[in-house]
Amino acid sequence: HPTQALLDALTIRRRLGHIEGLNIAICGDIANSRVARSNIHLLSILGANIRLISPTTLLPQHITEMGVTVYHDMAEGLDGTDIVMLLRLQQERMQGAETPSQREYFHRYGLTREKLALAKPKALIMHPGPMNRGVEISSELADDVERSLITTQVEIGVAVRMACLESLAAGVLGRQKT
Question: Which position among 19, 66, 81, 151 has the lowest Cβ density within 10 Å, counted as fewest Cβ atoms?
């Protein structure tokens, strides 16, 4: 999902002014997420330190070969984090045994104010959507205008995707003229 990674990078850059040196935690369903892989690639290239926080059952094999650090405990994984990026549980791609109940998942891996307090004091929250409130993130944090970049991601996403489409169309049309 390269356009999501582009808009996520731009969202971070606009808010913080840089990406290099940031500790970014990507949390949740890594195994079924194209967004996770695209962000791992791009944000690593831009100098971020990527950590993954997920149950073992939601991690792809050999994921550490991508240069990430893996955590199975939110408290440990969130320590010192600048950005907490949550991913949707993609139940439609699961066989049924990958996760406990949604209630148990939220208890262990859902972002709450208490868990966010384990990250850096001004850590920001991201989610590519669609989000499952009360499963990946509490509504309180999803709607927190000081910490949540989710609405900004949506706004920037439209512009980034339009720019990509325009660039592709210009390339195709430019080749046809010559």
Answer: 151
